[in-house]
Amino acid sequence: MIKSRRLALVWGAVIAIGAAGCTERSAHDPFALLEGQAIYKVECAACHGAKREGQANWQTRRPDGKLPAPPHDATGQIWHHPREGLAAIVKFGMVPPHAPPGYVSDMPGFAGKLTDAQIANVLAWLESQWPQEILKRRAEMLKQR
Hints:
The chain is mainly α. It has one domain: Cytochrome c-like domain (Cytochrome Bc1 Complex, Chain D, domain 2). It is 51% helix and 0% strand. The protein contains five helices and no strands. The chain has helices at 2-20, 30-48, 83-92, 116-129, 132-143. The protein is globular and about 40 Å long. The N and C termini lie far apart (56 Å). Mean pLDDT is 86; it is low at 6-25.
């Protein structure tokens, strides 16, 4: 009983210490992935789904002309794009050059709200959720660009 409490306290301290500097960490760091997941839940899940499933009929325009939020799981298209382009969309929203001129979207830009490192952590977490087959296909697709 005492050993398990000590272990829990040690792990709690490790997490707290690691979490304090998450935005300074590499995308492969587990704390960076935890931060990315937490940010996704707070900033992205309301539109893109708690399970990254996107909104219903995400490929069909609504009456206002906008497309619903796409999924960020393997069924969506974000894995088709390089991380730099995705980071720019998260940072600035769906605006040129990442969208056609005049394109109207509900996707906000997070510049000023999230740091570049936090955006990178969200994208790294999303990538960590994709199946290995999708990661392989993505790597091959991006090599050809």
